[in-house]
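EI: anyone free to look at a 148-residue chain?
SC: sure, send it
EI:
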Amino acid sequence: MSSHGSDALRIEFGPWLVADRVAAALAVCCALLILVVGSRYPDPQPWLGVAAVVLLVAWLWYRSSRAAGVTGLSVGPDGRWLTLFEDGSALPSEVLGGTRLLGRTVALRWRAGRGGVRQAWLTPWDVPEAQLRELRVRLRAAACRDGA
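SC: here you go
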């Protein structure tokens, strides 16, 4: 009988996770607040709000362009990680320090191939609870194996 952790685990998620949507909403609120506060001064400074909105749009564009094409992760029975892309390709990946288990969620940092560092905060609203639970178990097992 094989163990439950011996099967490959495939986690699929969209480009806009719940945490990304919340961060974008908070950034929009901050930009609007700067615009309102800037307009209440005796000498209005609307450029502050405009600058905040421009920076917000640039940040969102940069963030979405870095995550473009990533559809999920796969962990093989041997513990090897793969980053899955929308064109069907997969790159070998490694989980990096800074990955955290936060209650029922996982703040994941990984590097796909030789590319840059990617981050995702996976919640039960992004990934089915059973897959998220298995991911937490595998991360704990890897930490124990690595002595972390």
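EI: The longest helix spans residues 18-39.
SC: 👍
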